[in-house]
Amino acid sequence: MKDNENNAATKKRFVDVDAIEKVIAELPLLARQGKIGIVNIQRALKCGFPAAAKIYDLIKDKSRIKIEKNIFELDAKRQMLYLEQLINDALPDSGYAPDEVYERLHAEMTVIGELGMAADFLFAQSIAEILRELSDIPCFVGIGCCSLVAYTIGITGTELDPIEHGLIFERGFREGRKPEMPFSFCVPEEILPEFMGRMNKIYGEALLCKHDGGLVLSVGDTSVTVLDSIEPLQNSYRSFEESIDASGVAVFQEDYMRIMHYAAGYDYTEADRIRRMIGKRKIQEIMNCRRDFVRKAAHSISYIESQRLFTELQYKMNHVCCKAYALSVKTVLDAYFPC
How many other CB atoms are there within 10 angstroms of residue 255's CB atom? Predict the structure, then answer.
């Protein structure tokens, strides 16, 4: 009797493998490439990243298609391709029609490709997928929530819609330089062991090291910070509150970038460059920025008003915080302290 049960289980296992392989092989892209990875499995079966990893383990010894363990064994071009696949699959559930967000998604993907950050997004997405299975508490922290790509594929959670909150992608991701740790997650201590167990199953033993009260998960050339305590977030939020004007109105760096955009016609990449230039406090460079701002703002405001406005930018921009980061921290703290 027991042998019959084992034979039946073995037979079902082979049926499952054949069915899974058939679904994957039907994708034209994969048929041309002749190989699959966990992301392909996820897309083909429309399942979560952890489930895709389990299916990978099931078929790796039986499939006739070449299997690759994870996204870090792939070249940058195919990482970008997988990221595009995730976006296309997730868009119907994002609340936005493709034509509403196409321009912004295209612009973000262009920068992500130039910075070589597709793997960072795929890695963060897999972490977010695991955490959603383990806890329903918002856990994302970081300037990465300014990205519509990150929101669409589920990295930042439903609470951090960058369009709804007026977040600017260029504030976190600028041309020519990869941001440091744009994606972080606050993982409650009680689920940390199970979370790490799942991470190691998918990616092998991730490189761990201490980092400001938390951990750094490093796989390939990408890293993500994991905080096991909310204390650093509480300290950050206290500094945010101290930076709010005496009037009680919160003003953020993104607001001043938007002022530069509308008053002088700068795109947000240039507005962020000026923001960073002002932060360096180099007098000659700031004077050059002032002259350029006044010249470009002449079509919309007076000379005196443009001078006054730039002076306000110069002296206040260094004393306000990044809205994307502040919003992500507030979302996590509100979940822990709803009152």
Answer: 16
Please, which residues have CB within 8 angstroms of residue 130's CB and are 6 or more apart in sequence?
A: 49, 50, 195, 198, 199
* Residue-wise pLDDT tens digits, 140-171: 999 999 999 999 999 998 899 999 999 999 99
Highest mean pLDDT out of 80-84, 119-123, 204-208: 119-123
Question: Mean pLDDT of all residues in the chain?
Answer: 80
Q: Give the number of other Cβ atoms within 10 Å of residue 323's Cβ.
A: 24
| Domain residue ranges in the chain | 2-69, 76-201, 253-319
Residue from 99, 70, 107, 105 nearest 87 by CA: 105
Tell me: the pLDDT tens digits for 217-267? 887 788 888 888 888 888 888 877 776 765 556 688 899 999 999 999 999
Joined together, the tokens standing for residue 129 give: 């997928």
Sheet holding 214-219, edge to edge: 140-141, 184-186, 222-227, 214-219, 207-211
Burial of 49-72, coded b for 16+ CB within 10 Å and e otherwise, reads bbbbbebbeebeeebeeebbebbb
Rg of the chain over Cα atoms, rounded to whole angstroms, equals 23
Residues 6+ apart with CB under 8 A from 25: 31, 65
